[in-house]
């Protein structure tokens, strides 16, 4: 009889998809996998709901179970549509009992382990009650993992809340110095007694208090060698409150996988007609937070046109648009832009198959918001990147990509809220035409090759994954 692992993913595409790749690896290793889902309470998360439905239909070997809805759902977004952490944590907390009921009634013979999303750390209480090993899945990188472990000591030493630190330079062991504001979105208007601040601090404390079994981190040893080695050294030296961690990345889709959408997108046919490495691909994530203003869209358009380089651009309407799901490109972009650039570029509304585009022979550069999934997809495709962070830890990722990994350049102006057409043109030319662009490609190719080795029989991620399975086995039987 197969051993069973239960996975409990988060409620966003960027957290859900990497955990589903983890599920694939577990199935490949002979485990039965069940995924417990919180029935989407947000309704407006069209991209997330559609992604979940597509994944369920494409993975018949995995069992998916939707937990019953709870009454009086808390708000997980603010009135202006921004993510509200205290509401999200309350939502997950209210599903603890339905999760417990499902696990205790359906798995009387026991489960090998419960793996929960990093934002669902309170669900580890259920693993403890059922006396099964519980692990936390961290879909981002080891650098953010290291930062989370340091937040309490940073605030204690500075005697200020994290939101009050603003652009104060921070030195996290294993990371390059960078402003506090680059790690997470911190708002000066949120004092230490605010609900958001308390929720962040409580979440971080629970990471170390509740997750003694370990973390699964979506990264590759060689990609973040400095911080991974620093963390391992600290753990060997008996570092306080440092749980075991397993670097099991890159957990990303492969080119040609039709789980995202079954049909071949028309933009790939357009790419088929372009020469090798000549197209700049622009895409800014799967959520509405990545929508630019009309002014910014027009600056991008002018810069692309003046660069003279081919481009494939995924455009979403500004959030204030009457219908952001069906943007009117003629109204959003400069007059005549689409006609003038019809032989130079292609503009796609809302969505494109990012992995397939990045792996296409015609793609030569990637303008990205620096979400970790997108960074890994760019690396595994061997495509140099242009960084345009928008929110959360994307600013930290930008520093890592530019300064540590040497695989990207920064689009200057994002901090001021507007990247000019001149900057777009200059950076596109730099990556596509200059010797600096050649060097970027060489470095990202080296990381691509290292990532490809990570899941082979002699790879670091395979070894970490095997160690995790062994750890779960030993804890389950002890």
Which characteristics define this entry?
seven-stranded parallel beta sheet, about 45% helix, about 15% strand, Rossmann fold, about 475 residues, alpha/beta, globular
Low-pLDDT residue intervals, each spanning 5 or more residues: none
**CATH superfamily grouping of the largest domain:** Glycogen Phosphorylase B
Cα radius of gyration in angstroms: 22 Å
Distance, first to last CA: 20 Å
Count of beta strands = 15
**How would you sum up the global shape?**
globular
Please state the structural category: alpha/beta
CATH level-3 fold name of the largest domain: Rossmann fold
Kindly give the count of domains: 2
Any guess at the CATH architecture of the largest domain? 3-Layer(aba) Sandwich
- Helices, by number, come to 19
Enzyme class: transferase
Family: Belongs to the UDP-glycosyltransferase family.
Protein name: Glycosyltransferase
Organism: Oryza sativa subsp. japonica
């Amino acid at each position: 009889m197969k051993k069973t692992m239960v996975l409990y993913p988060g409620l966003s595409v960027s957290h859900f998809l990497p955990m589903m790749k983890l599920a694939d690896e577990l199935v490949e290793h002979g485990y039965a996998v069940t995924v417990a889902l919180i029935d989407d309470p947000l309704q407006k998360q069209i991209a997330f709901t559609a992604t979940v439905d597509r994944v369920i239909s494409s993975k018949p070997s995995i069992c998916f179970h939707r937990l019953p809805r709870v009454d009086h759902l808390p708000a997980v977004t603010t009135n202006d549509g921004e993510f509200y952490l205290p509401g999200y944590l309350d939502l997950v907390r209210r599903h603890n009992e339905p999760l417990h009921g499902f696990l205790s009634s359906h798995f009387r013979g026991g489960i090998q382990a419960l793996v929960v999303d990093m934002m669902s750390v309170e669900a580890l209480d259920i693993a403890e009650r059922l006396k099964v090993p519980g692990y936390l899945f961290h879909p981002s990188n080891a650098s953010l993992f290291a930062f989370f472990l340091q937040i309490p000591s940073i605030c204690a030493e500075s005697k200020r809340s994290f939101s009050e630190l603003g652009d104060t330079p921070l030195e996290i062991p294993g990371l390059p110095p960078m402003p506090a504001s680059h790690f997470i979105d911190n708002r000066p208007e949120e004092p230490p007694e605010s609900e958001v601040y308390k929720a962040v601090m409580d979440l971080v404390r629970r990471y170390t208090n509740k997750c003694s079994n370990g973390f699964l981190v979506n990264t590759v040893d060689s990609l973040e060698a400095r911080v991974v080695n620093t963390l391992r050294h600290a753990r060997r030296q008996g570092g306080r409150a440092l749980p075991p961690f397993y670097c099991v990345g890159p957990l990303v889709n492969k080119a040609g996988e039709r789980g995202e959408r079954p049909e071949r997108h028309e933009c790939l046919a357009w790419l088929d007609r372009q020469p090798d490495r000549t197209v700049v691909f622009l895409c800014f994530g799967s959520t509405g937070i990545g929508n630019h203003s009309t002014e910014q869209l027009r600056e991008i358009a002018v810069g692309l046109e003046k660069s003279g380089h081919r481009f494939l651009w995924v455009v979403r309407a500004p959030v204030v648009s009457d219908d952001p799901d069906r943007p009117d490109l003629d109204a959003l972009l400069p007059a005549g832009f689409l006609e003038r650039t019809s032989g130079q570029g292609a503009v796609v509304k809302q969505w494109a198959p990012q992995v397939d585009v990045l792996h296409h022979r015609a793609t030569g550069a990637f303008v990205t918001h620096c979400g970790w999934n997108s960074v890994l997809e760019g690396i595994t495709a061997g495509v140099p990147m242009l960084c345009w962070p928008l929110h959360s830890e994307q600013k930290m990722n930008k520093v890592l990509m530019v300064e540590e990994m040497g695989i990207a350049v920064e689009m200057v102006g994002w901090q001021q809220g507007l990247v000019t057409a001149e900057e777009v043109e200059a950076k596109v030319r730099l990556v596509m035409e200059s010797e600096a662009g050649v060097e970027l490609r060489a470095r990202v190719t080296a990381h691509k090759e290292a990532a490809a080795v990570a899941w082979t029989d002699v790879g670091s991620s395979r070894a970490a994954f095997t160690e995790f399975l062994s750890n779960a086995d030993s804890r389950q039987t002890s």
